[in-house]
Amino acid sequence: MDGGQRGTRELRLAELVAALSLAIDLGLGQPMEKFLRTCLIGVQLGKLLGVSDEDLSAVYYLGLIQHLGCTAYASEAAAIFGDEIAANTWLLTTDHGNPAEMIGAVLQHIGQGEAAVQRIRQIMHALLTMPRAQEEIFAGRCEVAQGLAERLDLGALVRDGLGQIYERWDGKGLPRHRKGEAILLPVRIVQVAQIAESLFRLYGGDGGVAALSRLRQGMLDPQIVSQCCQHGDLLVETANTGALWDAVVAAEPGVARSISAECLDDVFGAVADFVDLKSPYTVGHSRGVAALAAEAARRCGLPEREVIATRHAGLLHDLGRIGVPNTIWDKPGPLSEAEWERVRLHPYYTERVLAHVNGLDAVCALAAQHHERLDGSGYHRGAAAAALPLAGRILAAADVYQALREPRPHRPAQSAEAASAELRRQAQAGLLDEDAVRAALTTAGHRPPATRRMRVAGLTEREIEVLRLIVRGKSNRQVAERLFLSERTVHHHVEHIYLKIGVSTRAAATLFAMRHQLLSEADETGYLESSAK
User: Fold this and answer.
1) Phi/psi at 257 (nearest 5 deg)?
2) Which of 99, 158, 235, 371 reaches 20 to 30 Å from 318, CA-CA?
3) Which residues pair with 11 in a beta bridge?
4) What is the C-alpha separation between 71 and 438, in angstroms, rounded?
5) Pairing mode, if any, of strands 11-12 and 257-259?
6) Are 151 and 271 a contacting pair, CB within 8 Å?
7) Can you tell me whether residue 258 is helix, strand or coil?
8) Superfamily in which the 261-445 domain is placed by CATH
């Protein structure tokens, strides 16, 4: 990525990262622009503390995406808490180092609206599961966030900071129980800024300062808390500035950084993996859609700039999925009407997040159309044929085909023949464009003969088989049953896989598998193979 002026084919790094912060707002159930405000408070606080330029830049990016790993273990969080997005609204403000406070929060929030017996069952499950699960969940979130930060080229200090974001001043944090000044200074500043943003928003300036001052000992650096309280009025004014988006982009420390056109595929690929990690049923989905849609667009004779826009829209189209809980995405049975309403919002969320980024207009418009249908029965706009360009129709067809070829909680992955028949049925019914369907199916159906995959990171074929299953959420026992191995053998395979690819959690292994297209036999040939060249 290059510093200096942004060319017409380059995007501003700060804008893309700020857009990710809006998606993280959705995924954590926070008021929109929470992390934009956190960023501004953190940068102002850093200036008051007189930190170095390097530290200030890290504060800026950490303020925006400190929870970049939030999609890791979302399914596990949903299994513990129910709607994990609703749970995040109180988990983010609960003192995890205070067992009494955590238990009180669980008793207050979990199972609300459920019958008494069901609620008691959910509470007991949460109390029994949390102590065992939280260490892996937080470690996985950190590891995933660090891997994504490297691919976004955010620098070593931001990467290292993302590994410490859940640590605490008193040493009661996770994953490594760092204490005091062993936690990086930018992390300590952002931790104060995040909590200050919530308290200022809830209680105003004076009330927020009073509440924050009670946290001088414990989870936060007391000197930074003191500085924040001393300048509370200034920080409240900073957080409440008008034209918040413009203020955040302008606040980027140092020379403005841009993403060159040559790097966009890699950067958008990282965003796609960030999204698809949310559910074991969607790992690799966005990359598959992007590759299929781009090649189909080329077959339809679209100009190269539209082919590129279609590929980028495929990588980014499901960004809004983050705003819908895993209790819906991973539900094995039919969705209720209320649940469907939430599903129908995800293309809208995608559009609203991407609309802020200058230079992404065409990509944003296409990405928001992936669930539209020619007869106007799609969502979120209910746009009909006249409003849908060929590129948008191709993206819709590619999304349907790719989804059918993947497992879902209510059905197994469909065969190529079944997926092809369903696309043709939808074309005949006037839902999907016939030319788009023909191009997508031609692309998917004319694959070269399967060739032996070049080994990635020294993984054996058996290890790739094991990796494919564990990233789909299978336990060691389930993998052993599927592959007719002993559970102990699977355990050794998993250890070797993690060692070879340099990770320590399943979430990070899933990120690796998506990046290197190791998800299924179908990925080894055809449009995914060609897209990787």
Assistant:
1) -105, 145
2) 158
3) 259
4) 34
5) antiparallel
6) no
7) strand
8) Hypothetical protein af1432 (1.10.3210.10)
Partnered with residue 3 across adjacent β-strands are: 257
Report residue 441 as tokens.
């199916």
Residue type for position 360: L
Phi, psi of 162 (to 5 degrees): -65, -20
C-alpha span between 78 and 345 (Å, rounded): 20
Q: Which two tokens mark 458?
A: 């020294």
Domain boundaries, the chain: 2-71+143-259, 74-134, 261-445, 461-531
Contact 314, 289 (CB under 8 A): yes
In 66-115, where does DSSP find H-type helix?
A: 74-81, 84-91, 99-109
DSSP 524: G
Q: How many CB atoms lie under 10 A from the CB of residue 224?
A: 23
The two three-digit tokens of residue 3, written as one number: 């510093």
Q: Which CATH number applies to 461-531?
A: 1.10.10.10
**Which residues, 6 or more positions from 210, have their beta carbon under 8 angstroms from its beta carbon?**
203
β-pairing verdict for 11-12 and 2-3: unpaired
Cβ-in-10-Å burial (0-12, 13-18, 19+) of 376 comes to: middle
Tell me, yes or no, if the two domains 2-71+143-259 and 261-445 fold the same way: yes
- What's the CATH number for 2-71+143-259? 1.10.3210.10
pTM, full prediction: 0.90
